[in-house]
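User: Is it possible to get a 3D structure for a protein together with its bound compound? The compound here is NAP. I've pasted both below.
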Amino acid sequence: MCHWKRLTLAKPVCGGYNNAFSLRGIDAMQNYTPRPDLLAQRVIVVTGAGDGIGATAARTFARYGATVVLLGRTIRKLESIYDAIEESGSPQPAIYPMNLEGASPKDYQDLAETIEREFGRLDGVLHNAAILGTLTPLELYDLELWTKVMQVNLNAPYLLTRACLPLLKKADDASVLFTSSAVGHKGRAYWGAYGISKAAAENMMQILADELEQNTSIRVNSIDPGAVRTRMRARAYPGEDPLTNPLPEEIMGPYLYLMGPDSKGETGRSYRAQQK
Ligand SMILES: NC(=O)c1ccc[n+]([C@@H]2O[C@H](COP(=O)([O-])OP(=O)(O)OC[C@H]3O[C@@H](n4cnc5c(N)ncnc54)[C@H](OP(=O)(O)O)[C@@H]3O)[C@@H](O)[C@H]2O)c1
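Assistant: Yes, that's possible. Here is the predicted structure of the complex:
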């Protein structure tokens, strides 16, 4: 099954802004000018790297020097991001096909071991992959879909972080970045499993940050991208003119800031990539 010419690390696994930046802070992050080698020598895992914000983050991290592990479930999409990174002359990335919906704890362990074997280090994880589920009253929520949403949006970042912690602890200043959402900060009708998974992931970020603050140099934060022109946004807001929302490329400043060394020491915080 693994017939790709590319560096593919594994067979497919099928299996309130309390601390937020002030508005000035958001501006500062958006206008952040990273130095060109900001992420040089760093190895960073991006989940959901085949599409939307994750695909752009992967390409952006690579452009700033990172070796990116492209984790996702649709190999065709991962390959196209791989090719784009390679053609741009950035460090050679790696593809790690993994369906977070069915992945077992052992699959995450295998991933961490593969990264250690291939690269000998891990400096960052962007927990970006997520599914929307359905917008419906909690009372009527489909239970099978509920479990899928929780598996991808909540259990996967937990299992991935847990498996990668030993490697992350060895890095000089590792960054673990969760992706949150406005509906994870304040419950909103019909957002169901998605909103609850995002709220729980936010809490997981805080617990991890608290636990890791004393004896490690790992920082753990979350970022709410705001409304961004992606497939997920179009599904959630079918009546909206997509052109009213920025492209993922336009919100990469905060992602670079939080993944790179300039955010060293900042942990346990919830950030917004946009003011709206
Ligand atoms: N866009 C927004 O306006 C917005 C707002 C707030 C928060 N967010 C958050 O931002 C993040 C990125 O969202 P997006 O808008 O870029 O979404 P998107 O365009 O739907 O992309 C999601 C990515 O996650 C991957 N993914 C989904 N299920 C997966 C699974 N089971 N295993 C592996 N990968 C899986 C998808 O893979 P496939 O391509 O193979 O499906 C895709 O690459 C999400 O955490 C989302 O909740 C987005």
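The first strand starts at residue 43 and ends at 47. The radius of gyration is 17 Å.
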